[in-house]
Amino acid sequence: MSMIHNATELGQTTASTVYDLLKRYWAAFQERRERARLRAVLYDLSDRELRDIGIARDEIYHVALNRSIDPRGVRSDNSINV
Length: 82
What we know:
- This protein has 82 residues and is an all-alpha fold.
- The protein is 67% helix and 0% strand.
């Protein structure tokens, strides 16, 4: 009986580990797609539009990779101050 119980726990642990791995893989895949979409949108902007938002064309890859960091070194904040 003890062996069966241990095998069941091992199966649940393995399934949980596989599920967690797949979940992390999917999240990373989605994040990569989002960065690619952002890069495409930014590359489609004119140089003037990029200057308006404070990004140089050669900073697009960095901005897409580090979306929470402002390219001028100021941390972006999603909250709106009223």
